[in-house]
Amino acid sequence: MFFLLELEHEILLHPRYFGKELLNTVQRKLFTEVEGTCHGKCGFVIAVTTIVSIGDGFIQPGRGFVVYPVKYKAIVFRPFKGEVLDAVVKDVNKVGLFTEIGPLQCFISRHSIPGNMEFDPNSNPPCYKTIDEDVVIQQNDEIRLKVVGTRVDAADIFAIGSLMDDFLGLTS
Question: Is the pTM of this model over 0.70?
Answer without folding.
Answer: yes
